[in-house]
Design goal:
- This protein is of the alpha/beta class and 319 residues long.
- It has 2 domains: 227 residues, Spore Coat Polysaccharide Biosynthesis Protein SpsA, Chain A (Alpha-Beta Complex); 54 residues.
- It is 43% helix and 19% strand.
- The protein has 11 helices and 10 strands.
- The strands form 2 sheets. The protein has an 8-stranded mixed beta sheet with strand order 3-2-1-4-9-6-10-5, with helices on both faces.
- The protein is globular, with a radius of gyration of 20 Å.
Length: 319
């Protein structure tokens, strides 16, 4: 098995960071380094990170001004050992199963054609206990691929490629490990994208090969009130940017461009239908003005699905 660099971006994570790092220390696979990037935290995150560096020499802490998750990940990649061939990402509130790194490293060793590997996660609550049982597992298994202009469910033994990722992001950050060589060839995380910078990275990396899917529980995705992914408006806007940037990569082939366009249409149509259902519920509650807003947004999203191209004004940055 090959050595692994673990990158943990951390911002105001004093409540969960210790549990995250404890799950790293509990790994059965020992040949790793862990770089914690304290992204300008105003709580005890930096102090907790420093304390763990004293506990284990494989852990290092880097402190920077707050520049958000993508920048913190980039800092961690730059600060990590360039001789370690694999890079794994773990958010500051998520955890790993004890054999996660062993499963990841062994899988990549066996599949030299793959750019990365990903597995299955489950939801955990703020106390670290499983909840919404089966939901996140189902999302990880619900992988589709475009075939004959249709999204078709694929089996667990098939890899995740661009034709799959174009449908939706089925890779949870706490379940993925990538090859450093492909990561460097792809380029660092896009700092303009908030909350979907990982999705943009997987799309870009998939130009160079597939991600192997391992049907194993490897991580716990913590759901709490401060999740960026809970801000649906921010996530929707940034997913447009993530897809647009991937679509306009200079090495995008015509076939890949077609997959990305089909995926964008399917995604916008799904959002449109979701807003339409929400409008119906609001009408039933007598909230007519709110329903009118949802209907307007539903029509907008459906028109976007017909256009089939995610558009974003050059240079515009999302807050």
């Amino acid at each position: 098995m090959s050595a692994v660099s673990i990158i943990i971006p951390a911002y105001n994570a004093e409540k969960y960071l210790a549990a995250t790092l404890d799950s790293v220390l509990a790994q059965t696979f020992a040949d790793w380094e862990c770089v914690i990037v304290d992204d300008g935290s105003t709580d005890r995150t930096g102090a907790i990170a420093d304390a763990y560096t004293e506990q284990d020499p494989r852990i290092r802490a880097v402190h920077q001004a707050n520049m958000h998750t993508a920048s913190a990940r980039n800092t961690g990649i730059t600060a990590s050992n360039p001789e370690y061939p694999y890079v794994a990402f773990l958010d500051n509130d998520d955890i790993w199963e004890p054999d996660a790194l062993a499963v990841f490293s062994d899988t990549l060793d066996q599949h030299p054609e793959a750019v990365g590997v990903h597995g299955v996660a489950r939801y955990i609550n703020s106390e670290g206990e499983p909840f919404r049982i089966g939901e996140q597992e189902a999302l990880c298994h619900r992988r589709h691929r475009f075939q004959d202009n249709r999204a078709v469910l694929i089996s667990p033994n098939e890899p995740t490629d661009l034709a799959t990722l174009a449908v939706h992001n089925c890779i949870v950050c706490c379940t993925v490990m990538v090859r450093r060589s492909i990561l460097l060839k792809t380029g660092l995380f896009d700092r303009d994208i908030r909350g979907c910078d990982d999705y943009n990275m997987w799309l870009r990396m998939s130009h160079y090969g597939p991600f192997i899917f391992v049907d194993r529980m490897v991580g716990g995705y913590r759901w709490h009130s401060n999740n960026v992914s809970g801000d649906l408006r921010l996530m929707d806007r940034n997913e447009i940017l993530a897809r647009s940037r991937a679509l306009n990569m200079p090495n995008t082939t015509e076939e890949e461009r077609r997959f990305l366009q089909l995926g964008y249409r399917l995604w916008e149509r799904a959002i449109s239908y979701s807003r339409l259902r929400a409008a119906g519920e609001l009408i039933a509650q007598g909230r007519l003005l709110a329903a009118a807003h949802e209907l307007r947004r539903s029509l907008r999203d459906y028109c976007r699905s017909l256009r089939g191209l995610p558009r974003w004004k050059s240079g515009k940055r999302l807050a």
